[in-house]
Amino acid sequence: MKSFYSFILCLYGLILILSHITQGILPFEWVISFSPYLVFFSILLCLLSVILALKKKLNVSLLALIGIALIVAGTFAIGEKVLSFTTVLPEKGIGTQAVTLVSFNKYYKNTNYAAIDSAIQRIQPDIIGFIEIISADVSGIEQLKNFPYSQTNAIDDPFSFGIFSRYPLNKITIKQTGIRNVLTSEVTINDKKYIVLMVHAYPPVTMRDIEKRNSELIAIQKYINNVGTENVIIMGDFNTTPWSKTYDTFTSGLKQLKNTAKGKGLNFTWGAIPIQAHIDHIFVPSKAIIEEFKIEYIKGSDHRLIWSKVKL
Q1: Any residues with CB less than 8 A from the CB of 75 and at least 6 apart, and which?
Q2: What class, spelled out in words, does domain 98-311 have in CATH?
Q3: What is the Cα–Cα distance from 266 to 175, expressed in whole angstroms?
Q4: Which of 121, 129, 210, 309 is deepest in the core (most CB within 10 A)?
């Protein structure tokens, strides 16, 4: 039994290391998505091992030491990304125009309109971006009548979108290879124009899906860098977490933007305990001031409604 426990330590440590260095390959792509859980479990496992060793119920063998060393190394590598994103820091920026943004992957079969209406009424957003919104939802969600401007492609499938705004909208057609699951609009806020993109990246179910997700995110990155303005807002379901290499690749090429959840603690936007991940994001110009980032549970969807109050 003691040897088996040492083997488990080594196996778990190896999984941590491989998940860190081989992201984009299944199943490690899935494992890294739950990095906060991995850090918590690793700390518990190390504490348990120390207690067992002190009580002489665990042989401090070479195998056990190797396992602990792998776990510590993997936890530091993964934990550093979690801490760097979630640690609360002083807000920096020069924005003055207060705007509240909402992004919600509704789930196209969810008809819990009362809960959605209640959240919108409470948050009082200026711009809402919906994913998986179907034609019946547009009339079913009463609060949407309070938004004079809208743009939708409610095609009744999981890759439909809707943007609803209190500010004027103009439709933009993207002519860039590789971009499919995106709805784009131009919003005018006090005579200043912003490009708004709603994104629904492919879920990383298979290796082919991972390749399609990654290539589309790179195409979006190229499009944003070619529009000639820093006034860009991106919202939606990116199906990638802030601790993944895919996220690093995407954001490293978009220094002009920042995630409104960064520095706002740990926020899970998808799933249910104990399987949760942060895959929904709102990006705004880096000069903006992020006043709030919150998540709201809406029964009927596997995603959380996310919203952020910013000064652009």
Answers
A1: 16, 38, 39, 42, 43, 46
A2: alpha beta
A3: 36
A4: 129
DSSP one-letter string for the chain: -HHHHHHHHHHHHHHHHHHHHSTTSTTHHHHHTTHHHHHHHHHHHHHHHHHHHHTT-S---HHHHHHHHHHHHHHHHHHHHHHHHHS---------SEEEEEEEE--TT---HHHHHHHHHHH--SEEEEES--HHHHHH-GGGGG-SEEEE---SSTT-EEEEESS-EEE-----TT--SEEEEEEEETTEEEEEEEEEPPP-SSHHHHHHHHHHHHHHHHHHHHSS-S-EEEEEE-S--TTSHHHHHHHHT-TTEEETTTTS-----EEETTEEE--EEEEEETTSEEEEEEEE--TT-SB-EEEEEEE-
What's the predicted TM-score (pTM) here?
A: 0.94
Both tokens assigned to 36: 């906060």
pLDDT at 233: 97
List of the chain residues with pLDDT < 70: 1-2, 154-155, 175-177
